[in-house]
Specification:
The protein is α+β, with helices and mostly antiparallel strands. It has 4 domains: 284 residues, Beta-galactosidase, Chain A, domain 5; 253 residues, Aldolase class I (TIM Barrel); 75 residues, Golgi alpha-mannosidase II (Immunoglobulin-like, Sandwich); 71 residues, Immunoglobulin-like (Sandwich), CATH 2.60.40.1930. 16% of the residues lie in helices and 37% in strands. The chain has a 17-stranded antiparallel β-sheet that branches. Strands 36-35-34-33-25-24-23-37 form an 8-stranded parallel β-sheet. Strands 38-39-40-45-42-43 form a 6-stranded antiparallel β-sheet. A hairpin with a 5-residue loop joins strand 11 and strand 12. It is globular and about 80 Å long.
Length: 801
């Protein structure tokens, strides 16, 4: 059973514990086993390998011929680079652990006496847990005296190895550091060299099995995974490291900052080999939340409403904002344009609001009667002053002293640091923090309950130094500044929604939502761009309460005036599948702004939102996940997938978007890709047009015209598992905070959901009678249990708590 080891075995072939031997003098290997994991220190080569046990008992390679690597400055300031093979002595240790991940075991390989003569040790730690199917690994460098390090790689393979059977559909996932400059996710064939920030997945397209590797610590380091692959199946090099810095990746012009101390550790890297890489990515976010929980103070459901950017933009004004708020509240809301909780709609006033203080306060006051709340816009880490000479002007006038812009702006190589036209503020500076408090107090007093924060990447670019002398890395500075900002927001009002717009993906705990991509408009090309972020990055909903697809304009400006109704369906489908839905049109019929087409926008909105089935999907709080994982638009690695799915209890939704400008797409989608048995299906309907659909040959037929989308709803038979018939191959029952499952057939995996679709547990490679613990989970009134058998059968049960 993957989440619970059948016992930890540590095979020390010479001695039991702890074994110490000179490197190269002993050919015996040291082997550590835990559940399905096996870690081997190969004495002759000095390399480390990690294998994972298959169902039949053989082992498959996960990480082979790894030589951990560290860069550091020794106590006298000499820069060094060492490999684990550069050390004369090696010992292995095992210790028991019991932390936030629960009880477990740590297997450590300690390297000492390096050839360079420095008094340092290098230790690779491998952590295994009784209640989790994955492992963690990290690299630690220690010295009796203070050292500095900006690069630690616990995984760094040196020899090529075959990971999968060769297939053109095998992929490696590339995750961007942030969402600026219209960056995209990538799903590259295994013939590529890829750097993915913080996390990646390397997987077989057809079987979905693969390896997920990602950093779960985001307090000091920017981390990355480099993958060099060939032959559609071979890993030539794999490196998971802390200390990432790249002008085009992380936007840093300086090397990563150096951590200081007598003991410096890399981030802990999550390593998992799931049956489905999509489950592995979601499990990765679960592990991140164990380390640092996501911001989840917002209890009013998925934001649904309107934002002023995209169409109004710099011509925004109070009169149009008020008219649009009235239209949303009195016309669209009664049609069902709200979230499932029927919470107030969001009216998000963006950059260039052109509202004075009294207008802002009046808009917030009037919003109450229209079932709305109003949002504001800010840049806590940006200084939008024109040129460097302006930095000599006063930035903040304090009670004891004043600060100029030059005092508070970060530098790189001695020059003021700029990003996207803004000077980057020092997040640790007291004047910057005082400005934050002032800004927060003013917005909360006016009645704003939603804050969109933009260009926060300015706060996470490496600088020469920081006001706080204990801060050495950009991530440390970002954490100090953003944690302060959130603390002051929550002190002012604990129910404020924070949205990060242009922002790094990690750290994640400071915002309720993050925009999945850069700015996005309404035509089909922009829908494809946004869907790239969804179909490769849907899992970010595990570290944010909500994913934001940006505003949804039906009729925009310039070339966006020609957007068709079918493109509107595609963009709205994209938004529904992603999470938040904020329309972005000028709906004000009295507007003189000259932006948008209010009359056409209203007709389009009322046409699309008069569909009750579509409105019922808006604001559900759920995110669709990709179906294939390798079927990219136009065959490009950074193209979006057209197929995504969502399961809520006994209903499966399939969204299909056609990005082509001139060609219809049609075919049959195999139901087994959805985890659905045709015999379970009681009804199928396409929701945009309300047409019933007939399944046949265990597949869903679809036809989607060019620049359009369809959403199919598959209703499954209600399988109530409170009482299970004797002939069924599985029984489920609750005993306290544990779910017990008894099976007579081999099982591939079991997933437990709440009725709202939140995944509560996932286990795989199980059978017989086994327990799924919920000690750290507050159970809902009903559990939905999906049991996937090895023979392809899928059984769904309801268990009342």
């Amino acid at each position: 059973m993957r989440f619970s080891s059948s016992g930890t075995r540590c095979l020390f072939i010479l001695l039991l514990s702890a074994l110490v031997f000179p490197f190269g003098e002993c050919r015996a290997d040291t082997v550590f086993e835990h559940g399905r994991w096996k870690v081997t220190y190969v004495s002759e080569s000095g390399m480390v390998k990690v294998n994972y046990k298959n169902d039949e008992g053989s082992y498959r390679p996960v990480i082979i011929s790894s030589v951990p690597e560290a860069h550091y400055d020794n106590p006298v300031g000499t820069s060094r680079s060492v490999l684990s093979t550069d050390f004369a002595e090696v010992k292995t240790e095992t210790t028991t652990t019991d932390d936030a991940f629960g009880p477990g075991t740590c297997f450590s390989i300690v390297f000492s006496r390096p050839k360079n003569g420095d008094d340092i040790t290098l230790t690779q730690h491998c952590f295994f847990f009784e209640n989790h199917p994955w492992m963690l690994t990290s690299l630690e460098i220690t010295s009796p005296e203070t050292i500095r390090s900006n690069y630690l790689a616990p995984v760094s393979t040196r020899q090529a190895y075959v990971l999968f059977n060769a297939s053109a559909n095998n992929r490696v996932l590339q995750v961007p550091f942030d969402n600026d400059s219209f960056v995209r996710y990538g799903r590259h064939s295994l013939n590529s060299s890829v750097t993915s920030y913080e996390v990646t997945a390397i997987y077989e397209g057809e079987s979905r099995r693969g390896v997920v590797i990602g950093s779960v610590d985001h307090d000091h380091w920017k981390s990355a995974i480099r993958v060099d692959a060939s032959g559609n199946n071979k890993i030539k090099a794999l490196c998971a490291y802390s200390g990432a810095s790249d002008p085009k990746g992380t936007w840093d012009v300086l090397p990563h900052g150096k951590l200081v101390g007598t003991s410096i550790s890399s981030a802990r890297f999550f390593v998992y080999y799931p049956d489905d890489w999509r489950d592995g990515m979601e499990a990765f976010t679960d592990a991140c939340n164990i380390v640092v929980p996501k911001r989840s103070n917002w209890t009013s459901g998925t934001p649904v409403g309107w934002m002023s950017w995209n169409v109004m933009e710099t011509k925004n004004n109070y009169s149009d904002d008020h008219a649009i708020m009235e239209y949303i509240g009195t016309v669209l809301r009664p049609m069902g344009f709200h979230n499932r909780q029927q919470a107030p709609n969001v009216i998000s006033i963006d950059a260039w609001s052109n509202l004075n203080g009294s207008q802002e306060r009046q808009l917030c006051n009037d919003a109450v009667s229209l079932n709305s709340i109003v949002g504001c816009y800010g840049n806590p880490f940006c200084l939008w002053w024109g040129s460097e000479k302006d930095l000599d002007n006063i930035y903040y006038e304090g009670s004891l002293r004043s600060y100029t812009g030059r005092d508070v702006v970060l530098t790189a190589n001695g020059k003021p640091l700029k990003f996207e036209g803004a000077f980057c503020l020092d997040p640790t500076h007291p004047a910057v923090k005082s400005k934050m408090v002032q800004w927060i107090r003013e917005r909360v007093q006016k009645g704003f309950r939603y804050m969109k924060l933009d260009f926060v990447t300015c706060g996470i670019i490496q600088a020469d130094s920081y006001y706080n002398p204990d801060v050495h890395t950009a991530v440390e500075a970002y954490n100090e500044g953003f944690s302060y900002f959130c603390r002051k927001v929550d002190e002012a009002d604990s129910h404020i929604f924070i949205l990060n717009s242009i922002a790094p993906l990690f750290p994640y705990q400071y915002a309720n939502a993050r925009r999945v991509s850069c700015d996005t408009w309404g035509s089909i090309g922009w829908t494809e761009y946004s869907m790239n972020a969804l179909t490769a990055g849907w899992w970010t909903s595990g570290i944010y309460q909500f994913n934001d697809p940006d505003g949804v304009p039906l009729i925009g400006n310039g070339d966006q005036e020609a957007v068709t109704l079918s493109e509107n369906r595609a963009r709205l489908t994209n938004a529904i599948a992603t999470g938040m839905v904020l329309l972005a049109d000028n709906f004000s019929l009295s507007s003189t702004a000259g932006h948008g087409k209010p009359d056409i926008s209203r007709k389009r909105a009322e046409n699309l939102l008069s569909n009750a089935d579509i409105c019922s999907l808006i604001g559900t709080g759920h995110v669709f996940r990709p179906i294939f994982g390798y079927n990219e638009f136009n065959g490009k690695a950074d193209g979006a997938e057209s197929f995504a799915m969502l399961r809520i209890a006994d209903t499966v939704y399939v969204a299909i978007v056609n990005y082509s400008s001139n060609s219809s797409m049609s075919g049959r989608l195999p139901l087994d890709l959805l985890g659905v048995d045709e015999q379970q299906c009681t009804a199928v309907r396409e929701l945009w047009f309300g047409n019933d659909v007939e399944l046949s040959n265990a597949s869903l037929p679809y036809v989607v015209p060019a620049k359009d989308a369809r959403i199919y709803r598959i209703t499954l038979a209600d399988t109530d598992g409170v009482e299970t018939a004797q002939h069924e191959p599985a029984r489920c029952w609750l005993d306290g905070h544990s779910l017990w499952v008894k099976t007579s057939e081999p099982i591939s995996n079991v997933t437990v959901y709440s009725t709202s679709g939140t995944r509560l547990a996932y286990v795989s490679d199980v059978g017989g009678t086994f327990r799924i613990p919920f000690e750290r989970v507050e159970l809902p009134s009903v559990l939905l249990v999906q049991i996937c058998f090895a023979n392809g059968l899928v059984l769904n049960k309801k268990i009342r708590v």
